[in-house]
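User: Thanks for the earlier help. One more: DUF1989 domain-containing protein. Can you show the sequence and predicted structure together?

Assistant: Of course, both are below.
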Amino acid sequence: MTQAPPDAEARRAIAPVICYPTDTLPAPDLVLYRAARATAEKVGEVLVPPREGRCFEVKAGQFFRISSVEGPQVGDLNLHNLHDLKERFFSGKTRALHGTHVTTGERLWSNLPYLRPMATIIEDTLGWYGIDQYGGSVHDVIGTRCDPYTGNLLAGGHYHHCCHSNLTRSLADHTGLPLNEAEILVHDVLNVFMCTGFTRDTGQYFMKASPVRPGDYLEFFAEIDLLGNLSACPGGDCSSEHSSDTAACHPLLVEVFAPAQGALNGWSEPPVNAYDRSHGR
Ligand SMILES: [Zn+2]
């Protein structure tokens, strides 16, 4: 423990400033998206089995919905540019822009040097949850994904159905890539339906039973052509533990919807980031 300076309380009392005020971010046109959604018809679905991953493709301008079916279950979501798998979801910058948990009107951003919206959340039936008394909330971008390496580090053993491995297998199966090439494309996730936060006293990452129930869903508008990859986490509702076969697990349903021709008139795919990439040279 270090010695506190005489003005310690005064220093602690300084009010925080938001790192990235988002009022200059172009706002998504939710009115247009929802009007287009009202014309949309279902064009595909994928049922992700418990403790497995599955890929799905969504064209720019289409919608995809992730639903709880059968029982409470959280999902680990990866997104890639369908035509360039190196462009992928950037949970860290999404967190810096929108906060620890995301909901309606917020966007999933891609990694550098692309940094553009990949998808926009247009509906969240768990939006009512807010922030609970423990500081917990739903759909976080603070976790990474459960993985067998951390499991091995903390407890030894070789568990093969962590989200990292589920996402690796499903990406390899969908793309034909060898397992080791698919693995390095797997990235930090959006924890769909997962209820998490940081403890106030120790700052540790916590999880608690997800409030999700069958029928709940999170729905997105695809801003670019997407390859989605979703794992039904071995943690189930994440009320006790993950990285094992102990928890009760359920499938997750992904449905894709295409709007009517002309329903998105005036909308265009977001371009990649405009920074000139000269880095001062
Ligand atoms: Zn997981």
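User: Great, one quick takeaway?

Assistant: The pocket of zinc ion is lined by residues 76, 145-146, 162-163, 233, 235, 242 (CB under 6 Å).
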